[in-house]
Amino acid sequence: MSPRLLLALTPFLFTPIAHAAVDCANASDQATINQCAGQDYKAADNELNAVYKQIKERLKDNAEATKLLVDAQRAWVGFRDAECTFSSSGVTGGSVYPLVYSSCLTGVTKVRVEALKQYLKCEEGDMSCPVPGA
Questions:
Q1: CA-to-CA distance for 1 and 106, rounded, in angstroms?
Q2: pLDDT at residue number 5
């Protein structure tokens, strides 16, 4: 590898270290606050994906129910994105926009996580529940 290329790539090598060192509890500038809001959303999205995968696993023998779940989730993603775009539209272009948008994504996602978790708590024989018990 040429020294010039290595020098050009050096900032990218240290980027994960810089992100890991962020102290969100004591964030005091807008860029850091925005970054922390993004991290909060990523954590909520990871939890959503984990719960969604659990439900899909329980539905693996029911293609129709799986399709309905996927359709519902796609519709929910569309709602989430539209809701948060609208919710944050008053600050579009401003330095606080990433915070407002990410905070909306986090809040809406956490509500969805809790709704999906309820499907994992269905009791055997509950005819109103589309997800079989474990």
A1: 42
A2: 44
